[in-house]
């Protein structure tokens, strides 16, 4: 299958910095507004946003049989529902309009109305998330947690290598980058000899994750195979699954995460399509023991996406505390979706499925403060002389991610949130 928009030789007449996440081979979708424009669908390129509603009204998409309300919309769900092939043709058309040898938009007097400055736009939640599942699919992260809290010789639970473990989270508290949150409160019990107390979390953590967005619905009773999964995955976002470790530690037995996780999760605003990420697929981990037939898959399904996390104290220099990579996933997206639906669980357009914390084998590649500061025993030194075991009030957490190959960079922008004091 040839996707024209992925051509690494394509160049655009739009001014794009070499290190921009939003080159012509990316063209991610999002929802934006500004002081004069109502929320609508846009596509990022360089420092500009293509207003698809105005592009449609200019009759530059008239061959593609879209309804105007698909672009004049609070969410991407209706656009996604038009189908993967139609969205693929839309990206191909956009790459054609934006390519250096095409003058349809470049020389059109309406260009100033169709192209919006990114700095003047406010990004909004890209999709309406009906359901959210968080997996636990990084073997390095799962091993680290097992070593810290269980028997180091048996860090992984018996089921971990046999299936993608996950839990159903809270969709209502997933928010877009730029949304700040208050430090959560709940029950904690640090000393096992004492009764629990109610307090604000003292072990607030980020979790470096990515999430994929379901692009096609199923009926109750249907299952999605690993072979079919690509057709059901529309695209991906960065995902910061904020965690209150002290609340989580006390509550998670026997049913798993609850108040320690559901207070806020933050996503990047641009949805990078799976099509745009296809050139960056790589071989995944060898899975031992061999998985059951419904989890077996063909081809390379891991994706080489470089990830980083910066912590920035208020009015002080920030520090890059983690450099990881999405390729370190033990269980890939196809396996996650196949396992999620093997019992007949139905999925809907806009459902979000997060990877779980993404940690690599090296200590610099750990994807949470729990691991980076090793349960508080190895504090991270900050440029201003302070140290971090976990996130402090007024810290800003910034996540970034991009894939790069053959001079082409496909990135996600930033996923930013700030810790506000507990209410």
Describe this structure in words.
The radius of gyration is 22 Å and the shape is globular. The protein has two domains: 4-124, SH3 type barrels; 132-420, Fumarylacetoacetase-like, C-terminal domain (Fumarylacetoacetate hydrolase, domain 2, Alpha-Beta Complex). Strands 6, 7, 8, 13, 14, 16, 17 and 22 form an eight-stranded mixed sheet that branches. It has helices at 52-57, 68-71, 77-81, 84-98, 111-114, 139-149, 229-232, 245-251, 274-277, 333-341, 369-372, and strands spanning 29-33, 40-45, 48-51, 115-117, 122-124, 132-135, 166-168, 174-176, 181-182, 185-188, 197-200, 204-205, 208-214, 233-241, 243-244, 265-267, 272-273, 281-282, 302-303, 306-312, 319-325, 352-354, 380-381, 387-388, 396-405, 408-420. The model has no long low-confidence stretch (mean pLDDT 97). Strand 10 (185-188) and strand 11 form a beta hairpin. By secondary structure, it is α+β, with helices and mostly antiparallel strands. The longest helix is centred in the first third of the chain and has 15 residues, at 84-98. It is built from eleven helices and 26 strands.
Q: What form results from the Cα inertia axes?
A: globular
Distance between the termini: 53 Å
Question: What is the gyration radius calculated from CA atoms?
Answer: 22 Å
Tell me the total number of β-strands.
26
Weakly predicted, low-confidence segments:
none
Class of the largest domain, according to the CATH hierarchy? Alpha Beta
Estimated share of beta-strand residues: 25-35%
Q: What class do helices, strands and sheet pairing give?
A: alpha+beta
Write the CATH homologous superfamily of the largest domain. Answer: Fumarylacetoacetase-like, C-terminal domain
- CATH architectural grouping of the largest domain: Alpha-Beta Complex
CATH topology of the largest domain: Fumarylacetoacetate hydrolase, domain 2
- State the share of residues found in helices, binned by percent: 10-25%
Number of domains: 2
Largest sheet: 8 strands, mixed
| Number of contiguous helices | 11
Mean pLDDT reading: 97
